[in-house]
Amino acid sequence: MMFTDVPSPVDFHDLQQARAWVENTVAARPWRSAFFDAFVDALNQHFRRSFSVLELGSGPGHLAGHVLERCTVAQYRAIDFSAAMHALAREHLGAAAERVLFVEKDFRSPHWFAGLAPVDAIVTMQAAHEVRHKARQPGFLAQVRRVIAEGGLFLFCDHYAEPGTGKNPELFLTKREQADTLVRAGFQDVRMLLDFGGIALHRAVPLTVTPRASRTIDPHANRERGGFIGRCRN
Ligand SMILES: C[S@@+](CC[C@H](N)C(=O)[O-])C[C@H]1O[C@@H](n2cnc3c(N)ncnc32)[C@H](O)[C@@H]1O
After folding, report:
1. How far apart are CA 183 and CA 197, in angstroms?
2. What pTM was estimated for this model as a whole?
3. How many domains does the chain have?
4. Ligand 1: which of 15, 82, 90, 103 to mutate, most ligand atoms within 8 Å of CB?
5. CATH of the domain at 85
6. Which helix or strand (DSSP H or E) is residue 60 part of?
7. Low-confidence ranges of the chain (pLDDT < 50)
């Protein structure tokens, strides 16, 4: 089914507009730092080893800066379709930019995830709605699920629709829909970590399905486990 794009008020490819978005956001949402802290805490609680990170819609690198400074990151890949945003991120990160692999990719293209090696953590902030219609989010999140390594973590943070706030319900999921969409996309243990200013941060882990093949390899062990097919673990 086709959905008409909700037009974006900002052309992120244009350096001036990208810079203006960053300046306005910093001024209007100083409390974003609480979200950065929550991302860092969730990552450090989940991983007891160094881990790889993929950020979707990384923009000016604010989240990357916090994660690189306070987590043991093995590799950080920042995906954004805007060369202008990547330039602003390099500027913001300074020397830490050396530790980031900047990838220009459009996550609305059907195979944006092709060729990406499984990654331990995928993080995204104020960017998932850039698929420009909420009906595209289930497909997008299912693609995200395919890129996360077993035992990995997804931190999904975005605006949500709420009556009376003026946020376009065609573009944004409600908070409830955010959690439900994560489950339908193949995640479990979905929990909201922070909700402020019309933005919610959810954590979710990839659902792992026990391979059917285990039944034929060891039927006795399978009986002991209840003879399940496709039961979830973790
Ligand atoms: C609202 S900004 C958020 C930036 C950053 N996550 C933050 O919170 O500071 C959205 C970002 O998503 C990027 N973006 C928008 N549509 C995209 C797409 N289809 N593929 C990849 N990046 C996209 C924009 O260039 C921009 O950097």
Report:
1. 24
2. 0.90
3. 1
4. 82
5. 3.40.50.150
6. none
7. 214-234
